[in-house]
Structure formats: C-alpha cells, structure tokens
Amino acid sequence: MSVEQYLEEKLIPQPDIAVEVVGEVIVYCDPDTYPQVLPDTSKWKIAIGLHPKAAPYFNNDQFIAMQEALTDMRVSALGEIGLDRTVNPIHWMSQEKILDKLLGLARPNKPVILHLRGQATETMSDAVYTTRALEIVQNNCEPGAKIHLHCFHGKEKTSGYLASRFSEHLFQLFSLKGQKFP
C-alpha cells in the first residue's frame, strides 16, 4: 500500500476536531526500511534519519545509504536523529557518537529534526533539552541552522533557555503538553 493509499483510508474513530492539513512530511528513520525509490510527489516533504534507539546497530553501509539519500532533491530534512535515554545506559555513548557523525551530514538548506528523550523515569524532563544533546548540536551545526525539536514537551523556561543559548540557530518547538508517549 502506498503512502497516498494509506492516507485515503478512513480514520476510525473519526477525529473530534476537524483539522486542515497544510503540510505533510514522511520521515524515514529506519535504514532497513528506506525505500529503494523515494516517492515522487510534490504533496510531501521527505526526511531521512536514524531513530536514536537504532544507533548501536547503525553500520557504515547504512551511513552511506543515508548520505546518498540526503543528496536527493526530494529529501528536505535530516532526521529524525538524536538521543534517547530510555534505553540501557550502555548504548548512550554510541548514540552520542552517531549523533555527532550524522550532524556532519547537516546542510544549511535542510532542517535537522531532533529526537530527544530523557531517562525512562523522566522522559518529560526539561533536563533532556539542556544537556549533552545540545552540546553536540552546538559543536556541529552552523550558525543559522534550522533545527526542529519534535514532540517538545518542556516548560516555557526551557524554551527561553534554548532561545538564549542557541540564539544563532532557528529552533522550532512544537509543544505537546499533556500528551503521553511511550
């Protein structure tokens, strides 16, 4: 089933609130399932990345495939990439090394979609936004880089911190306060 066919399916149950969709992004963050041929549609933007939980298993062939995919004109963003501290701490260092390596693929004309999660006991903690991940971003992203921090659920104070510490970067914070995610 194609993405277009999937979206034609009726939602069950129907949403309580009608929304007008003005933009759509397909995010491929599992190298094993990157499409051989990217969808050729002007209706969609495409992002190529690696979910941080897969970092320990990321290999050079997958890196090369990602690097090649990012050169495709239909790919509009690098992501999602980041750190996910809900995994066993033995994987944290590999996540950091992979994030550092993948940020080397960032280009000024393609936003970076960051996935950041704290430890299992504090997945919604503001500390996840003000720690190691942002150090890595600051060390690797050019001034003016566009960074989308998806599923942001921090406090207003934290968004102020991000704006001041990364004033040369454009951060897009999409708040999902009150939402619960695994």
Automatic annotation (TrEMBL):
PANTHER family for this protein: DEOXYRIBONUCLEASE TATDN2-RELATED (PTHR46363:SF1)
Entry-linked Pfam families: TatD_DNase
Lineage: Eukaryota, Metazoa, Spiralia, Lophotrochozoa, Mollusca
Membrane-spanning residues: none
One Gene Ontology molecular-function label: hydrolase activity, acting on ester bonds
Similarity-based family: Belongs to the metallo-dependent hydrolases superfamily. TatD-type hydrolase family.
Protein's recorded name: Uncharacterized protein
Domain of life: Eukaryota
